[in-house]
Amino acid sequence: MPEWMKPYLPSAVLALSVLYLGVQALTGQYGLLTGDERAATLAKREAAAERLAAERQDLELRVRYLQTNHLSRDLLEERARVLLGYADPADHVIRVSLPAPAADRSSPAL
Fold it and tell me: 2, 19, 22, 39: which has the fewest Cβ within 10 Å?
């Protein structure tokens, strides 16, 4: 390095550091220009948190009704029917038959 450049070296390093930090302040992960992305991410996560809170509240209510000291006969009967696949004689059951899968007609049967 030439002798005449040595006094300018600290100034050049300082200028490049300020330039780097300035660019990061604008476009970095927490920069001024990324505020909209952070706001959108925050809104999406808040919506997910509200949905999960509502789901948790519903599950806590179901658990409370299935405990022995607060047993709900209707909820217990509903869960038993779903798990065992039974229906009450007073229920109206509509059977839906699915079409049988068609055999591959492009190949001859053996």
Answer: 2
